[in-house]
Amino acid sequence: MKRSLRAAIAVLAATVIPIGGAYAAQTVPENLGVSLEIVEACEVGTIEAIAFGTQGTLGAAVDAEGSVSVTCPEDTEYSIALDAGQGDSATVTVRKMTGPASAAINYTLYSDAGRNTVWGDEEGNNRVTETGSGAAQVHPIYARVPSQATPAVGLYTDIVTVIVHY
After folding, report:
1. Nearest Cα to 150, choosing from 51, 64, 56?
2. Partner of 79 for a Cys bridge, out of 48, 52, 122, 127, CB 3.0 to 4.6 A?
């Protein structure tokens, strides 16, 4: 009988019966950790293609524009390179749109509206450099088809790869 009595007393001692029906709240401080790490990572957004339109002859230069948007974290330095494209023997100075029977139309891409600075893929030479703002930054691409012999009738195209270095 002593064992049963001791157990009952222990239960009564551990039970708190509030006076007047109110319970006292206990605060136990604990910390909840919350984190997110931003790393240098840039993203190419919208690319506006360059369309020179419909031309009958190429006796005069034809200009067009496109653009590429890039988003990088604030204060992240980056550069945008444009490769030579897919035309046979193309360089960044003389890119080539190909068409019927492998005929080609020469063109050049520039980083300035005056079409003086060729946009290419050499670090420190002809890439466009910028510092990220955390928001999308739009970079215009200026293009020109110089005066040249007009090739056969048809659609001429090329694909240039945009590369963002950061």
Report:
1. 56
2. 127
